[in-house]
Design a protein that fits this description.
Length: 102
Amino acid sequence: MTNDFLTKVIAPINQILGLVLPIIITLAILGFVWGLAKYIYSAGEESSKQEGRDIMYWGVIALFVMVSVWGLVELITKTFSIEPNRQAPTSSDIDKLIPTPK
């Protein structure tokens, strides 16, 4: 009973994270690099340096949180032997989502 419940709850979360998280991690890395560039190119402006430092700081925190959540979900799926359905949607699956005019 518990494994069935966990499969219904954790498997969809794992699928969503598997699709979305790499994109979000890429954006966080780009944000960190942007903050680093802002820090490096602010040649004497202390306020600009501080802003770049803050962007890098929050980028590292965002990366840590995202990777931790991803790892936690993977740990739960491996611990309880939950096998998410990792098949890509087919055209018939997409056709079910799009209403057809009558």
